[in-house]
Amino acid sequence: MTPAELSALNQQVLWAAFAIAAAFGALVQRTGFCTMGAVSDVAAMGDWTRMRQWTLAAAVATLGFALLSFAGLVRAPQTLYASPQWLWLSALVGGSVFGFGMVLSSGCVSKTLVRVGGGSLKSLVVTLVTGIAAFATLKGLTAVWRVHTVDRVAVDLGMNADVATLLARGADLSPGAAALAAGFTAGSVLLAFSLASRESRRPLNLVAGAGVGLLVLGMFWVTGHLGHLAEHPETLEESWLATNSTRAEGLSFVAPVAFALDWVLFFSDASKRLTVGIVSVAGVVLGSAAMAAWRRSFRWEGFAGTPDLGHHLAGGVLMGVGGVTAMGCSIGQGVTGLSTLSLTSIVAACSMVGGALAGVRYQMWRLERDAE
């Protein structure tokens, strides 16, 4: 492969990632898909509709990833979530912190980016704060704390810490067959739950959940297959083009917001390059803005007052710190990571729900206190 061909392929990966992210932004803007909203609907009203949207997204992504793995296009050990260590404490603490933070911020990072596209200035502030906190947790002060505390507690499995790999070893199956069996089992359970009610089978809810799941799979295909080089012409090593992790990546938004800020602030640094994560941040905002403009729902929005500002700032910090510690957000771990059946992702996704439930109870307590 010549340098020109390599550059052209890199551009194809970036444009494809941008298109997928723009479609995600438009879809979420149109359907109201929201993890925080899903948890709050269940806790406050007993309404499981949006929760079933989320589980449908996870089901579609899990079933699809199983097929990708069986076909040999991309497997869990090739992804961002690949590790022989089960970082259960990082996932537990980080996921809980992220979940609580997304309630304070009125939505997770992906929803915040969608709201930026819809004209929310307070979501823009949350995005910036989240990015700063995330970057500090990647390379700064809170990164030191993370590495010397929760990241020290891990279980080394001696193989990739995902269900399919464990099944392949335990049942003496091929990696592809194990991925298919594990993925279809887990995906079928999630699918059955997500379609259990009549309301969840309405077209809008099906489009929301299945659409997000398919877009996650699309990103995995772009980074894990289209951008995959068995032997990079310069390094002679296996590589995945235009990813920050140098592995296959799906949709995720906490670390990418940090990388986007880094790219903007140090744009003149020749070593800084566009990646899938960076263009995804821009794609979600622009896709959401296009949908908001088309539906004439674009509205400027600011903070209601000082308490509102304080809670959103705190939420942004918690999402940045928690998201990096847990290795992803409610999309990055709750759908993308979960689809690989990573053990760390399973703990992170469950912890995010638990943290969000605590956040909802805190908000309800505030409302009751203010009403007295």
UniProtKB/TrEMBL annotation:
The chain crosses the membrane at residues 12-33, 54-74, 86-109, 121-138, 176-195, 207-230, 250-267, 274-294, 341-360. It is a multi-pass membrane protein. It is found in: Cell inner membrane. It comes from the Bacteria. The keyword Transport applies. Keywords: Cell inner membrane, Cell membrane, Membrane, Transmembrane, Transmembrane helix, Transport. Belongs to the TsuA/YedE (TC 9.B.102) family. This is YeeE/YedE family protein.
